[in-house]
Amino acid sequence: MIANQGSYKQMFWLLLLTRGMVGVGEASYSTIAPTIIADLFVGDRRSRMLSVFYFAIPVGSGLGYIVGSKVKDVADDWHWALRVTPALGALAVILLITVVREPPRGTVETHSDAPLQYTSWAADLRALSRNRSFILSSLGFTAVAFVTGSLALWTPTFLYRSRLAAGTLQPSPSGHASDSDSLTFGVITCVTGVLGVSAGVEISRRWRRTNPRADPLVCATGLLGSVPFLFLAVVTAKQSIVATYVFIFIGETLLSLNWAIVADILLYVVIPTRRSTAEAFQILLSHLLGDAGSPYLIGLISDRIQADRPQTFLSQFRSLEYALMVCAFVGVIGGGFFLATACFIQADRKRTELYVQGQFHESPEGEDRIVVPQGGRPTKVPVSSVLI
User: Fold this and answer.
1) How far apart are alpha carbons 207 and 29 in whole angstroms?
2) Predicted TM-score of the model (pTM)
3) Mean pLDDT in the chain?
4) Distance between CA atoms of residues 101 and 103, nearest Å
5) Neighbour tally for 189: CB within 10 Å
6) pLDDT grade for 219, boundaries at 50, 70 and 90
7) Which residues lie closer than 8 Å to 304 by C-beta, 6 or more apart?
8) Whole-angstrom distance, CA of residue 154 vs CA of residue 176
9) Could you give the 3-state DSSP secondary structure of residue 291?
10) What is the pLDDT of residues 297-324, one digit of tens each?
11) Is the pLDDT score of 15 beyond 80?
12) Which of 129, 145, 322, 384 could make an SS bond with 291 (beta carbons 3.0 to 4.6 A apart)?
């Protein structure tokens, strides 16, 4: 027994190490890929291409539940569920090397012969910290990641506990969620991902013709609109599992409106030479304060509530139910960040467009300023005051 425990600990750290290496690869790819798309397409076509790219997040997550559960069943060994991904990753690397070519930074947007000037990483961070649309939309997207991360980990377990509490299911030998719940949730995640991402881009594209603030407003509408449905999914689980699935479907569809639009916002409020840094910062923020910590926080709250209650199926269900209600509050806060983004999106977008067209340059101090006449003498003023 002791030898087996020692072997398990050793393999656990190996699993942790390999998972960390996968995370490094995913983070590097997620940082660079959207900026490559931005250097290949502009306008509405860019938005559509980003929507195709961001199908991968909800659809890939849903397929993970489906493929993982089926491979485990066929092989009767959970190790094989993890061995599917490396083969797909190897295929992706081959295609990237043989098909994708490096596009010049900002060429499709620049209308000036002067090349874009690269700045230091520290200067990039200072400029990004003053970019209100970027900061606020990143905070809003962090709220989206918080909610989706919590749902991805805890929804199958929550559905399993709701069935136990209602007396419609017997406990599984492993004590974990059944494969049927994981499979159903995976299918829902795939379908809602396709519907939500495509609908979000199309709604934003049409609304943008009459309202230049359409992008952050669609994000705010999607996130705020998902809150009541996700709340209803939690509170109705014990009474009707079908109603819960319906509310999850609607809530996840509304959540998925954000994925491609947030990336598009970043690309047109940040200058081309700074976009990879901006993507890296946004990904770090959304994972660090979003889906990396939210599952642990939900579990911690559930355990604290459960600590003072008897160990029954009903109490375990209720403790997780109350903990998941945190997602509703986070969703409201995130919607507020997107509404705030709408206040600054026009000025920040115009500033970026003027920059790539060579009509103004940043000052040596790193401040975005242009020269305008004042009383017969030139003076430097913040560009945002001119754009507004």
Assistant:
1) 31
2) 0.76
3) 80
4) 6
5) 28
6) very high
7) none
8) 11
9) helix
10) 999 999 999 887 888 888 989 999 999 9
11) no
12) 145
Contacting residues for 151 by C-beta, under 8 A, at least 6 apart:
230, 248, 252, 327
User: Does residue 365 sit in helix, strand or coil?
Assistant: coil
Q: Which amino acid is at 259?
A: W
Q: pLDDT grade, residue 176 (50/70/90)?
A: low
Going along the chain, which residue ranges are E strands? Answer: 369-374, 377-382
- Which residue in the block uniquely carries the two structure tokens 């795939």? 190
Residues 54 and 63: their CA atoms lie apart, in Å, by 14
For residue 166, which amino acid is it? Answer: A
Q: What is the DSSP letter of 274?
A: G
Residue 325's alpha-carbon distances to 65, 147, 170, 221, 302, in angstroms, are 23, 10, 26, 19, 11
- Beta strands of 7-164 (E only): which ranges? none
The secondary structure of 226-270 as a DSSP string is: HHHHHHHHHHTTTT-HHHHHHHHHHHHHHHTTHHHHHHHHHHHHS
The H-or-E segment that residue 217 falls in is helix 214-235
The rounded distance, in Å, linking the Cα atoms of 56 and 36 is 16
Residue-by-residue DSSP string for 149-191 = HHHHHHHHHHHHHHHHHHTSSPPPTTSS--HHHHHHHHHHHHH
Tens-digit pLDDT profile for residues 49-84:
777 777 776 677 767 767 777 777 777 777 777 777
3-state secondary structure of 193: helix
The CA dihedral of 27, 28, 34, 35, to the nearest 10 degrees, is 140
Give me the sign of the Cα torsion angle 121, 118, 35, 137.
positive
Coil vs helix vs strand at 135: helix
Exposed e or buried b per residue across 244-262, where buried means at least 16 C-beta atoms within 10 angstroms of its C-beta: bbbbbbbbbbbbbbbbbbb
- Residue in this structure with the two tokens 């609607």, named with its chain if needed: 250
